[in-house]
Amino acid sequence: MLSFFFVCAILIFIILVKGVFRLPKASVSKENKKDFLKKCLIYINAIRQNGGRIDKAGLKNATGVAWPTLDNAIKKHFSLSYSPIKQNDNEFILDRNYSILAGISIGATQIKLFLCDFYYEPLWTNQSLRKNLSQVLDDLKLEDIRNNTDSQNNDVDWSYFCYKRENSIEGIVYRLEKIFNVLLKNNFLSSNLLSIGISFPGIINSDLRIDFSPNIKCLRNINIKDLLSNELWTKLKEKNIPVHFEHDTQAALIYEKEHLFKSNKNWASKKNVCCVYMAAGIGTSLIIDNTLYRGTSNSFGELGHTPAPDLLTSSIPDENLTIKERDDKNNYFYNEKTIIVSQKKNITPCECGKLACLENAFRRNVFDAYDTDSYLDTINNTKELNNFHINHPYRYRVLKEYLGYIIGLTINLLNPDMIIFSGRIMRDISKIGNELNTIKANSAIGIPAAKCQISLGSKDIFSAAAGAAISSLHCCIQEKDFCEIKW
């Protein structure tokens, strides 16, 4: 009898040694991951942008790397245990669970958090990772402003998390602390979280100072790093999670460019792309020869703070307007508020100090908003924006004039292959997407206009947060804020 138990014990020991009951594998060190990514990002991007898998010929064509060099890279790097690129016969496959990225956008209307896997797909859609992060996702939902009444509403898109805007430094610090503490307290997430990106609006210099942010007035002469406490920086360092920063308009373009590889590969091949981001402000970002352009001091694209005319269509004779457009025009010009404001000349200057900048003129003449707060209230009303062309047909014509001004200026000055319109205004005023090409034809010089594709962006509400996450990967690898990003 004893010998029977002894034999059983020996068998159990052998089974355990052989690993039938394996313990969880130790996570790969982030330094190993970062070192690999630095050497092989060109291959990773080529596979990701091809839907996550590619054959040898496709990889060679996509990277432009000669076969001997590519073959050497495959032998030297792809077989490493910490490589996300796995070879299956003649095909290379990218492991979407290799790392997690986080992006936060500090906006004038909301603060958003986006978590994604190594495909840049929202973490919420990744079933295998969701199982390990159910508690994290539940904690992040608690203060999400979309869903305070019904936490079990499965129709809500949890691809991102949305929190109320903060108008003070203390409020922004508090929200960042809340988000970071949730992300860092989960061991699985913090060990797989490669990097975090945070995007901000305004003039953000390359020395990490925000000179001013017109629509978040407390962000003036602020060092961005000071928005995270010393204690939080210590925790991040202990867990080896770098945090990098990005401009919100640049972040939006980074995301829109990556999204094109999934939605329209012909457009994704465009090398000179401009993004016009229209939300609380109006900004532009630019890719030149497949490289993100930042400007000398990282402040390229402050289109909203350039001088612009009052593009009111009041010069159009009333007989050329529809009855509804005439009524809307009269309601606009002769309502009590407009008359009082014009009599008192009580127009609030923009934070940039000018009355005649594009943002101010656009807000007044399209949305009848004479200060930042009233404008933000208007664009936060999704229903109002969705019905804007119906309820305000005259001002909708004014909107199209401003878009024509922006399109003409962009094409005539920059001569891009493509202009992408992104942001809340372009997403929520649903009719405008169908009219962009007509507006373009009437606004820019013939041949440059004809060669320029114009389109609405992805319509994803988290574009700036997602772009910040993607930017953080590049900055993490290059160990530099506002790093060079190429496609």
Give your account of this protein's structure.
This protein is α/β, with parallel strands linked by helices and 487 residues long. The protein has helices at 2-18, 30-48, 56-63, 67-78, 127-132, 134-141, 169-185, 187-192, 230-238, 248-263, 265-268, 323-333, 336-344, 358-367, 372-379, 382-386, 388-391, 393-414, 424-428, 436-441, 446-450, 463-478; strands at residues 53-55, 85-88, 91-94, 100-106, 110-116, 160-164, 193-200, 203-204, 209-212, 220-223, 243-247, 273-278, 282-288, 291-293, 418-422, 453-456. The protein has three domains: 30-94; 100-254 and 464-478, ATPase, nucleotide binding domain (Nucleotidyltransferase, domain 5, 2-Layer Sandwich); 263-459, ATPase, nucleotide binding domain (Nucleotidyltransferase, domain 5, 2-Layer Sandwich). The strands form four sheets. Strands 6-5-4-7-11 form a five-stranded mixed beta sheet. The protein has a five-stranded mixed beta sheet with strand order 14-13-12-15-16, with helices on both faces. Strand 8 (203-204) and strand 9 form a beta hairpin. It starts with a helix and ends in a 9-residue tail after the last helix.
